[in-house]
Amino acid sequence: MKVSIYRYNPETDREPSMKEYEVDTQGKDLMVLDILALVKEQDESMSYRRSCREGVCGSDGMNMNGKNGLACITPLSQVAPGVLEGKKPLILRPLPGLPVIRDLVVDMGMFYNQYEKVQPFLQNNTPAPAIERLQTPEDRAKLDGLYECILCACCSTSCPSFWWNPDKFLGPAALLQSYRFLADSRDNATEERLSKLDDPFSLFRCHGIMNCVSVCPKGLNPTRAIGHIRSMLLERGI
Amino acid sequence: MSIRTITFDAIVVGGGGAGMRASLQMAQSGFKTALISKVFPTRSHTVSAQGGITCAIASADPNDDWRWHMYDTVKGSDYIGDQDAIEYMCNVGPEAVFELDHMGLPFSRTEEGRIYQRPFGGQSKNFGEGGQAARTCAAADRTGHALLHTLYQQNLKNGTQFYNEWYAAELVKDADGNVCGVIAIDIESGETVFFKAKATVFATGGSGRIYASTTNALINTGDGVGMALRAGLPVQDIEMWQFHPTGIAGAGVLVTEGCRGEGGYLINKDGERFMERYAPNAKDLASRDVVARSMMMEILDGRGAGPDGDHVFLKLDHLGEEVLHSRLPGICELAITFAQTDPVKEPIPVVPTCHYMMGGIPTNVHGQAIKLSGGHEGEDQFVNGLFAVGEVACVSVHGANRLGGNSLLDLVVFGRAAGLFIEDQLRQGMTQYEPTDADIDQALARVRRWDESSGGESVSALRKELQSVMQNHFGVFRKGDLMAEGVAKLADLRERISKAHLDDKSKPFNTARIEALELDNLLEVAEATAIAAEGRTESRGAHSRYDYPDRDDENWLCHSIFDPTAKKLGKREVNFKPKTVDTFQPKARTY
Ligand SMILES: Cc1cc2nc3c(=O)[nH]c(=O)nc-3n(C[C@H](O)[C@H](O)[C@H](O)COP(=O)(O)OP(=O)(O)OC[C@H]3O[C@@H](n4cnc5c(N)ncnc54)[C@H](O)[C@@H]3O)c2cc1C
Ligand code: SF4
Ligand code: SF4
Ligand code: FES
Fold it and tell me: What is the DSSP string of B405-416?
């Protein structure tokens, strides 16, 4: 099958280009990450990130035939119709909207900065008990669909609002984490967290386009979390 | 040759659970510390841990006792775990786990609002007399993810200085063997730098990638062990590799022991629940080495499933959709993705798969690295300036077989302990050993060798060959002649790897260079494993030999010590002197 990969090495290339490779999959429905390994055997200069190879570390977010996802848990058959059969090439590009360091490797700095801005850690100024802080199963259930985020950036880099204002709009991933702590019964910094979000950009640049939801490889729903924060902000305003 | 030097009081190499627990402790102390990690910390292998963290927090059973946990761990280790270290881990454990909750770790909960605990293999109440215990604290089946992200968040809060995507290539030591820091490469720019520190803490994790089939992440290449061995330092019990019973056949991806904890069980091709024959009491929750061997016997006796009869099944469908989706959601995802099997409906094809390195750099409970005065024999001596925590270390709390859920506990307990100890030492005034230019040059030799290579075999082909040698010669069952062959093949590989070729010599984000440097480490770990496995002439825990089928307490109730300089295997005493409880005497190990 044909694979077309975005190549750019700042040391030697003036501008990026797409490079074609021929890979023998023996008709198997391999994961995109397996294809990258086969390409790397042919051409070790092609760089990409990977670690867990099972969809839990968030290293290998990339754009596959136009859609963001994790290479390690995306089988060829799911990339686009015809790719597995070799009728269409597999087209791999770095996540859009972030500066490219080399080939499929992007600079995640802006993405991490926005994450850090939401103070993604539990805050509770009451003295800790000798055992755990108790939490009911119902309160704990509120964290499901939030804490599982693997910071792969597939969502934020598919969000037009983030592309335009990556420094001011926090983006879906950071906002999801913001809500993860707002929703935690053990956290008591709610007021402070909300006041930091109460400006025209941080959160309110979200226009509910839902790109983030459709690409999240963990099936999370940042739009819903953003909606929850929005209602908390509105209630607080009254 | 002069390279840039960056100076800290302490550096931690590794941003998994162990490294980040240590760095958190030190960040809170105000000393100048940095954490170096070859991947962004939350991409470390700890993120993959599923089932939980075992600890007697007395939630599932209000009468639970850390001494029972200690008993299980000693027995699980097949009696070569150090009892002072196991005592410390089990006793301090609850405090360390409650701290994780206070930091925000989203543990699953009981109706009382306490942390949810599930049964895991090898767990008992009342020193083996009271039946199965439920002692593994869980955040659904994503405990490692929850733990790692929580620790990263706390490190952010406390201002830890991170060097993410920096690759530590070599230890720097002075003429007397004192550790002065590490050589590290900034992966993004390709710059090579000397990190100088009074304390260097290795938290580089495991090395499952020496085997062809493993549950481990692609980055688990044993860099810490490799660096230690090249520096002439010994490793302990490195022949002890855990094969996890339930790796997904073909893919190697793990499904947690928590599946069996929640009531799942193994069946052969005839649908028989075969563990009832091998371990009548604990059945599917016997210790991992026991279950893995039983599965291999079924397969070797022709009762394996599939066209090649090479796997068995893990049955979960009887637990019902609701339990599976609430307690084991991640497993359902993995089974569908990697086995095209929905566990709600069908059993998952599984096979024992390389999972965990029980051996590693020998340390005491403070993480201080230890060497022997005579290389492979003699008195314990500290390696000044070097510490190790987590999977790369051999404290040893796991001995010849680790119990499920005990690794995450090991990470936080000993990461914390090392942090506390170093903090204290720094306060008292620790020596900064100074390397000469020649010492630094020596540490740079390997990086330079690859950068100057021209012609020779490729890294990926050699890596594949090494992995298949380990898989075929040092697997679940071992035999003297087969291992001798394996040792010879590795010697040949060493020769060839020393002449292998790095084609891409560019600087920015050159992952080919990193993979080349990792290959050297895989080789070091593989060779140490091979020589130690051939040398331990008995069967104990995970090390199981056809030619020496029995445990030999007379000769081998001890640690093995591999000295890389002489390539010799020696022995080191196991600690049988816990401080607050009576010694657990070796007994026959049945489940
Ligand atoms: C699939 C799976 C599931 C598991 N489930 C459980 C479980 O439920 N309970 C349990 O107790 N245990 C479990 N384990 C075991 C446990 O997860 C590991 O033993 C543990 O996470 C290791 O942690 P660590 O901090 O020592 O190393 P790791 O988490 O592996 O981290 C190593 C760190 O070192 C860094 N590093 C390595 N080399 C270099 C270098 N050269 N330069 C710079 N940085 C470097 C890496 O970037 C990384 O940050 C599981 C293991 C696997 C494979
Ligand atoms: S819903 Fe909001 S956050 Fe998500 S993609 Fe659209 S604008 Fe971005
Ligand atoms: S929300 Fe989903 S897509 Fe976004 S970073 Fe987290 S896991 Fe990735
Ligand atoms: S390699 Fe970890 S998510 Fe793909």
Answer: THHHHHHHHHHH
Residue B23, SS3 per DSSP: helix
Rounded-to-integer distance, Cα A179 and Cα B426, Å: 39
Question: Per residue in B42-70, pLDDT tens?
Answer: 999 999 999 999 999 999 999 999 999 99
Q: Under DSSP, is residue A168 helix (H, G, I), strand (E, B) or coil? A: coil
Mean pLDDT of B264-273: 96
Residue A150 has pLDDT above 80, yes or no: yes
**Are A54 and B153 an interchain contact pair (Cβ–Cβ within 8 Å)?**
no
Please name the member of B48, B101, B509 whose beta carbon is closest to the beta carbon of A132. B101
B288 is catalytic: yes
Please state the separation of Cα B480 from the chain's center in Å.
Answer: 25
**Considering B142, B288, B446, B540, which one is annotated as catalytic?**
B288
Q: What is the largest CA-CA distance in chain B?
A: 67
The residue type found at A117 is K
* DSSP state, residue B536: -
Its pTM stands at: 0.97
Q: What is the pLDDT of residue A209?
A: 84
**Model confidence at B261: pLDDT above 70:** yes
Residues 6+ apart with CB under 8 A from B266: B245, B246, B260, B273, B274, B275, B284, B291, B295, B312, B313, B314, B315, B350
Residue A238 pLDDT level (bands cut at 50, 70, 90): low
Name the residue of A111, A114, A197, A211 whose CB sits within 8 Å of the most ligand 2 atoms, as the mutation to test its pocket: A211
Integer distance in angstroms from the first to the last C-alpha of chain B?
Answer: 59
| Token digits of residue A3 | 């694979």
Instruction: Say if CB B311 and CB B351 are below 8 A apart.
Output: yes
CB of residue A216 inside a 6 A radius of ligand 3: yes
Tell me whether residues A47 and B43 touch, CB distance under 8 A. Answer: no
SS3 B218: coil
What is the number of other CB atoms lying within 10 angstroms of the CB of residue B102?
17
Burial of B188 (0-12, 13-18, 19+ CB in 10 A): middle
The answer to whether the CB of A46 is under 6 A from ligand 3 is no
Q: Where are the alpha helices (DSSP H) in B498-552?
A: 511-535
Q: Do residues B426 and B198 make contact, with C-beta atoms less than 8 angstroms apart? A: yes
- Nearest chain B residue to A136, by CA: B113
Pairing of strands B361-362, B265-267: unpaired
On chain B, the residues whose CB falls within 8 A of the CB of A134 are 112-114
To which residue do tokens 């999370």 refer?
A: A220
> How many residues are there in chain B?
591
B211-252 pLDDT tens trace: 999 999 999 999 999 999 999 999 999 999 999 999 999 899
* Distance from residue A67's CA to the centre of ligand 3 (Å): 14
Q: What is the ipTM of this complex?
A: 0.98
Selection from B52, B31, B42, B13 nearest residue B156 by Cα: B42
Question: Contact at 8 Å (CB) between A59 and A49?
Answer: yes
Whole-number Å distance between alpha carbons of B44 and B26:
20
Residue type, A131: I
Q: How confident is the model at residue A208 (pLDDT cuts 50, 70, 90)?
A: confident
Strands B4-13 and B192-202: parallel
Retrieve residue B532's tokens: 């130690």
Alpha helical stretches, state H, B80-196: 83-103, 143-157
What is the Cα–Cα distance from B216 to B11, expressed in whole angstroms? 25
Please tell me the distance from the alpha carbon of residue A92 to that of residue A101, in angstroms, as a whole number: 15
**Residue B465: both structure tokens together:** 């060959």
Pairing of strands B265-267, B312-315: antiparallel
CA distance B19 to B22: 5
